Amino acid sequence: MKIGVLALQGDFDAHRRRLEELSAEVVLVKKPEQLNEIDGLVIPGGESGTFLKLLGEEGLAKLKDFVRAKPTFGTCAGCILLATEVENPKQAGLGALDITVRRNAYGRQIDSSIREGRFLDDPIEMVFIRAPKIERVGPGVEVIATEGKDPVLVRKGKTLAATFHPELSDDRRIHQYFPEKASEAHESRSEQRQRARFRYRRTLTSGKSGIHTTLGSSTNAEVRTPRSIQLLHGHA
Description:
Elements: E1 2-6, H1 12-21, E2 25-29, E3 40-43, H2 48-69, E4 72-75, H3 77-82, E5 83-87, E6 97-102, E7 113-119, E8 122-128, E9 133-137, E10 142-147, E11 150-156, E12 159-162, H4 173-208, E13 211-213, E14 221-223
Parallel strand pairs: 1-2, 1-3, 3-4, 4-12, 5-6
Antiparallel strand pairs: 6-9, 7-8, 7-10, 10-11, 11-12, 13-14
């Protein structure tokens, strides 16, 4: 499967290197149409407002469609874009994760720090640079990693968001975790398509043998076959 990294700003190349170190096939995404080529996407750090300007209306709409359908991992500014609610100041975005995020909650660039947090109950290095803070976690959103009492990595289904920069650490576990979840979602979609194909084939089979005897008649049989069988594009 192909993992894309949104390459409009931020240290997208660091994400690319981490993923390639894990033998992932990586595409640097610079145009909306490239989203059609990939199975999962990383939205790196940077400045979330600048991301929105660079994406434009068409790019943002395309990205929203992608995030609804396929695995996405946002770090720092990417986390802000994925949130349903943003403070300091308020800002619209992709609305993919039911979380409230406060921008620059850890201070300015000079206040950047390296801290130790917990990822799946194990210690892990975390790099915070003008980081946002997750102030509210909505129903169904799972906390995957914490720093002190603060949630810093959350997930719901195929969508993952971190307030720190895992690409700037030598620890690869976060970047390994995302492709694993993306692969699970990819396999799940493949299973759904296989089930849809099976149901369609079963419909065809039953249609070919659609012979029913009219009640009250033992000599006259009425042959009935389906008038039409509609195959919905994209579900097979």
